[in-house]
User: Fold this.
Amino acid sequence: MPQAPMQYCRLSRLLCLSAVSASLLACGGGSGGLTSAPPPANDPGTNVAVPDLGTVAVANTVSTLPAGWMNGAFMEIYVRGYKDSNGDGKGDLQGLISKLDYLKDLGVTGIWLMPVTDSADKDHGYNVKNYRAIETDYGSMADFDQLLVQAHARGIGVIMDYVINHSSNEHPLFKNAASSAANAQRDFYVWQASKPSGWSIYGKDPWYASPYANGYYFAGFVAGVPDFNLKNTQVETFHHDNLRFWLNKGLDGLRFDAVGNLVENGPSAWESQPENHGVMLRAQQVVQAYSQRYMVCEAPAASQAFAAPTSCGSAFAFDLKDALVNAARGNAASIQAVSRYFSTAPPTMATLLANHDTFAGDRLWTQLGGNVAQYKLAAASYLLMPGTPFIYYGEEVGMANGQGLTGDWALRTPISWTANPSGFSTGTPYRNGATNATTENVQAQAGVPDSLHSHYKALLAVRNSLPSIARGSYVAPFVSGQVLGYQRHWGSEKTLVLINYGSSATSVNVTGLAAGASLVPRWASSANASGASIPVDSGGSASVPLPAQSAAVYQIQG
Assistant:
């Protein structure tokens, strides 16, 4: 996707937060936001207690999870939309705990919790008020601790969203900072005495007048989420202490939000600045002080740069997502792009087909117009490749966008456990469900051989049983017509992956194999696929038949 449209679309993720900014300023910013006369220049302003500020030392670094747990597949979970345990119409941590057996049975080895910390809007969640508190709608800290214990007992790791770029304007740090230009915490955020000119981010002026003190603060998304000043080492210390707070509890890692937006150096230098990588390297070093932890970053404009070991170490492959979907449609250029990607991209990329943000596109079912054959190809494409795949909750049963909803809200709906909302909650759900919930739901698909759910379960079983698929290198990729092929190697284990994106059956000639070896079938998406081993001839070639729109995994033996 072109960079500029991506940037503009990304704003929708936070537009809803403008409603909560009224507590400190008029949303329009400018002098109209002033509500009182500024204090004297030397007035220190307020000293509101900051519950998430203070030193946290490293403790409890041990992990009980199996080695390589983070190389399986993750489920991205919007807790509000997953399972309601108390009938208030909103999903919660206890509801999620009740579904851990489902997740284990499906085959995921990790879950990413979208924001569960105390937020100003109690829904979207990316406007944090307290980095060391659980959103009360979701439960208590005891519930969170129980989630970790129960997930770990099932071999599932838990990572959570961490918002490092900005806080809510209701955060005590910002209340103090906004109260006076002389406040001791003023430099936790980005301020200018007079309003800078020439700025436009996502089509908006990012500078807003403080309601209580002379000066303007920077908020790159919307007024209600002021940016931290990450050139201030105190801010990094604040975040590192909060990271350790959760890691000490046994949290298995973090997903860092909006890391491309951390440091601004001017009106034309506000995204993916060099300093951002240093900020994230130091955060990575905090995480790496703990055993078997995992972190991944969101950086749509420069995904591979942030996946470097000198930065985040892992990042979402937004630069691959569209190619995966279009390859499933049979697009020749996209098949080539998928084939080439991991020849140069870091193997630590986190792959995806869709997520909670509109800039990443609709839910996969909506993108593909309900074409189940293409849907299955897209799933096979990213679940068998290198990297760590992230499944968006409900993707495994083909959830569509929400009924009558637009923007991010259409992507953050109650999961379709059953054909009606009672599967999610005994009360009235907080939001409409998917448009196709009556036909595409867990109850209707679980255990049904040809369903999407069974397809995902089978793919995850292959990934979990073959280290070469979960963790192996990417070897000898090729494209023949509309067939994509490549090998995965882990030690002596070698596998061959073949995907026929075409609408016709074909045979593909695979070369470069060991003479006299055999291709032993380990999984095939089509019931029409041959279940017999395929011999490799003396020249190192094998002819493999592939049904239309199918995928297969062979283990190379001998």
Summary: Confidence is low (pLDDT under 50) at residues 1-36.
